[in-house]
Design a protein that fits this description.
Pathway: Carbohydrate degradation; glycolysis; D-glyceraldehyde 3-phosphate and glycerone phosphate from D-glucose: step 3/4. Homodimer or homotetramer. Homotetramer. By secondary structure, the protein is an alpha/beta fold. The protein folds into two domains: 181 residues, Rossmann fold (3-Layer(aba) Sandwich), CATH 3.40.50.450; 136 residues, Phosphofructokinase domain (Rossmann fold), CATH 3.40.50. It contains eleven helices and eleven strands. Strands 3-2-1-4-5-10-11 form a seven-stranded mixed β-sheet, with helices on both faces. It has a four-stranded parallel β-sheet with strand order 7-8-6-9, with helices on both faces. A hairpin with a 2-residue loop joins strand 10 and strand 11.
């Protein structure tokens, strides 16, 4: 394999706090080794359509604390058709890229894995606010999202208690309930509903009524967007739109819950959908540090010639694992952790 001179870096999928910290770390570490770095704009879209920009120590100065991603992102799937794939491969050669760093979640890393199988030297960095990637204890973006959810619950507590209301808080989490579980525990939620455990709306209403009987005239319910009632075998959604990876646009379970609770209990119920607020803004200190550690480690893997790998956090140590591992299965909420959360239900 020829010596590495130029590294391409991209961010794919949903934006999340910490992406700029990771980009900054990649550029600073790469420059220390004498590598040139180009940013591929808007994820895989940029490699398909030839949209890039040079990244230097100067261009990444001052971005550590900034949310989003300076090179943009998209949910583009180059394997959706053969023409896009061939364009991507042609541009990879055209730009003289010797190795790629792909920063993303399940879908972005899934594309990276397939490209690795085709012989593209590639290293993955795991990011997602959902914290659902196997092989790593945590992904950056998660800590910030949980902090935002916790703050929102704290604020909703005061108005719920003042008005004797039921507050339903819908948070992100398509397949897993990590944000709902961590944020719900930290915020003192009275009920937490997650995709891993189907819920019974009747049981939810019974818990709320029992709280009222004990003089607790308000309740906070945190529900992940992918949570399902026991008698429903599909997601509750407000739209039938799907992205390029076939994921349906979620959102609606909070309003479903709010309507059913008010109808069955007669208690005043309000719904708050946090949505993209969870993705935005400045990353927490933990996410800045984790993203930085991941970025440095990814460049080190390239220097060592270890491709087809993903950097990961295990027992607070940065390690590398096969890039196929997070693609094979999602990391669901630990049942023991959810049992701890249930201690405080009702």
């Amino acid at each position: 394999m020829k010596p590495v001179k130029k590294i391409g870096v991209l961010t794919g999928g949903g934006d999340c706090p910490g992406l700029n910290a990771a980009i900054r770390a990649v550029v600073r570490r790469a420059n220390s080794y004498g590598y040139e770095v180009i940013g591929i704009k808007r994820g895989w879209h940029g490699l398909i359509y030839g949209e890039t920009e040079p990244l230097t120590n100067f261009s990444v100065s001052g971005i550590l604390h900034v949310g989003g991603t300076i090179i943009g992102t998209s949910r583009t799937n180059p394997f959706k058709n053969e023409e896009d794939l061939q364009r991507l491969l042609a541009n990879y050669k055209k730009f003289g890229i010797d190795a790629l760093i792909s920063i993303g979640g399940e879908d972005t890393l899934g594309v990276a894995y397939k490209l690795s199988e085709k012989g593209i030297p590639i290293v993955g960095i795991p990011k997602t606010i959902d914290n659902d990637l196997s092989g790593t204890d945590f992904t950056f973006g998660f800590d910030t999202a949980v902090t935002i959810v916790t703050d929102a619950i704290d604020r909703l507590h005061s108005t719920a208690e003042s008005h004797d209301r039921i507050m339903v808080v819908e948070v992100m989490g398509r397949h897993t309930g990590w944000i709902a579980t961590f944020g719900g525990i930290a915020g003192g939620a009275d009920i937490i509903l997650i995709p891993e455990v189907s819920f019974d709306i009747g049981e939810v209403c019974t818990m709320i009524k029992k709280r009222h009987e004990r003089g607790k005239n308000f309740s906070i319910i945190v529900v992940a967007e992918g949570a399902k009632p026991k008698d429903v075998d599909k997601y509750i959604t407000s739209s039938n739109q799907v992205d390029e990876f076939g994921h349906i646009k979620l959102g609606g379970v909070g309003n479903f819950l709010g309507t059913e609770i008010e109808k069955r209990t007669g208690y005043d119920t309000r719904v708050t959908v946090l949505g993209h607020i969870q993705r935005g803004g400045s990353p927490t200190a933990n996410d800045r540090v984790l993203a930085t550690r991941f970025g440095v480690a990814a460049v080190d893997l390239i220097k060592e010639g270890k491709f087809g790998r993903m950097v990961a956090l295990q027992c607070n140590k940065i390690v590398d694992i096969d890039i196929s591992e997070p693609v094979k299965k999602l990391k669901t909420v630990d049942p023991d952790l959810y049992e701890i959360a249930k201690v405080f239900f009702g």
